[in-house]
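Morning!

As promised:
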Amino acid sequence: MSKIAGNIGQNFGVSTAVTEQKDYSILNLGPTHPATHGIFQNVLTMDGEMIVKAVPTIGYIHRAFEKLGERRPYNQITPITDRLNYCSSPINNMGWHMTVEKLIGCEVPKRAQYLRVIIMELSRIADHIVCDTVIAVDTGAMTGFLYLFQWREKIYEIFEEICGARLTTNIGRIGGMERDFNEKAWSKLQAFIKEFPKGLKEFDALVTRNRIFMDRTMGAGAITAEKALQYSFTGPNLRAAGVDYDVRVMNPYSSYQDFEFDIPVGTNGDTYDRYMVRMEEMWQSLRIIEQAVKNLPDGPFHADVPEFYLPPKDEVYSKMEALIYHFKIVMGEMDVPKGEVYHAVEGGNGELGYYLISDGGRTPYRLHMRRPCFIYYQAYPSMIEGGMLSDAILTMSSMNVIAGELDA
Amino acid sequence: MHQQQNPSASQNIIELHDSVKDALVAQFGEGIIRTQIDYDFPVVIVSKRVLHDALAFLKNDPAMGFTFLTTMCGIHFPANEGEEFALMYQLHNMEKNLRIRVKVFMSEKDLTVPTATDLWLGANWMEREAFDFYGFKFSGHPDLRRILNMDEMNYHPMRKEYALEDASKHDKEDKYFGR
Amino acid sequence: MSKVDIKPEYQPEGLEGQGFFATSLDKAVGLARANSLWPLPFATSCCGIEFMATMASHYDLSRFGMERLSFSPRQADLLMVMGTISKKMGPILRQVYEQMAEPKWVLSMGACASTGGIFDTYSVLQGIDRIIPVDVYIPGCPPRPEQVLDGIMKIQELAKAEKGNRRESPQYKAMLAQYGLE
């Protein structure tokens, strides 16, 4: 699109050797804007419809997670991690639990790992539903959003059966899961696995090969693989540019090596590729969930770490050790070894890493979260400069910029 | 402060640690202060003088090949006299799937550090975040200003001497808090 | 067809006759306003996603007349603040509130907007009622869509019951002066 605009002068016989004194207008794509899903500001210097320069400003929802992490004990940090990428909060929770388990050297049983995989892949589907429908809404196609959000409600119902909450789930515990899936959760999960392909195919048929959608999104906001790697991109945005880097495959965690799935990779790194990579990832996530449900091993759903995992209630009321452990865990007095650990999971947007320094106290000494959104949003100005304003909007929504993860 | 030798690290990690240590010491000699293994990461502690060159070496040398900057952050150890602040860089060699950590310690009197934006474009905002939270001055950074906090803020909030809550205590109703 | 005496609940009290219905202007205007509010979704974080779920087809918001979301404050009636407001965002929220025309209502959704929520930190504004007057608070983190609809219905009741000259009255102006607004 931007290439055509550059040639218009020659087409109409107008000399392109215009005077250098151009009158640029400043447009504030402000923090409150219908199309910026989240609050971040971009001050655009525009030459008509074309963007000459973009200066982003973030931090409008800075909630000081890293400082909060130094105040709260380990099990109380999980609700904070929920609010990072809140469209797929179970992945953030599991990443945090795995980091602490790495620190204390806890081995989680296979059944708990498979259950975690099911929950993480369900939330990945939920995250990609939000992103893909929002790309369609920004091109004007509201219908896909309304149809596909019904499936998000079904995922919410499954989460509710497991942990009680819809969006900010605080799911799982250090050492495994807080409870096994009950009958209703299994039946809802089976119904979802059976019915969701129909819903996704419907959305696919509406949008993917739609002429208008393809014209709008192809070529918009492209980025090359080399540039993306320079900017430390990860996740679907990097895969759309052509690099098949997925933390689940490179550094498998929680038994991902047992599952067979493909990593979709794009070619240009433009909006259409990002949309398609996420669509295909939803199919692959469904595949992983089916395999996990089929091959689910029996066994305990949590590890035997009494210092971190709440003991069963009847033991708390009858045995002394269980009562003491319960008290210590709830008050946050856990004995954590000293050390530094880094663990990364494949979040909805890329490599979500937790760097944890523990000094043996009840709270972390330093908690740094490697937030993929923060890191790849740096490239946004270079992706939109030279393009048109409408492409800038689509680029932003296709990058899936979640404000909670951007600012933390 | 928080060092831990991990003798049970797997053979690959120990080999990686040894090869990185040998290559770096051969190149920089005393600039490399110490190396260790923390859980599953080889950690290299360098002096500020050789930091930029060491990072460039790790990125550009074909035998090393750590071309991807995963993350960087600042850390504050008020108890360490003379080495109160630290910066941590995590690098990733995607082709061979190897990760290492580079750390540099410095005194609170001199927080100027050479920037890494000429090596990785992604270090731009990471360094701005480290400046915002701790006050590191990255020399050569194209646009060093606050990124997450308000521009008017006059202190660096992640330092240990500052509390989590607003210091002015104006943000809450006094009558609910007994003051 | 037998004569059925239907007294719809939404019908205000008045004098009814053949072909006419007389009631007070306030009640008629309130009825019209309540069922056609144009909300401004000021969505900042997780509550915004729950609002998207409320707007979607399962918990439809357009049943309440809020089909048309207005992102321009000049054309909005109801400012729905959903999510954490940081101190950096405070002046922008206030500017948006000032740009809205009377009559306007403010709905604070979620714990973060009401009181700062779980984020008792240096950067988070501990409740939007420190900078703008709020009509309805919806607690929750995030509140379920049913709670959001409950809050919206309370706003509708407020709009229905509003007296015509409330916005000109000295008490209202004194309340605005407390916040430093005109």
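Chain B has a mean pLDDT of 87.

Hope this helps with the figure draft.
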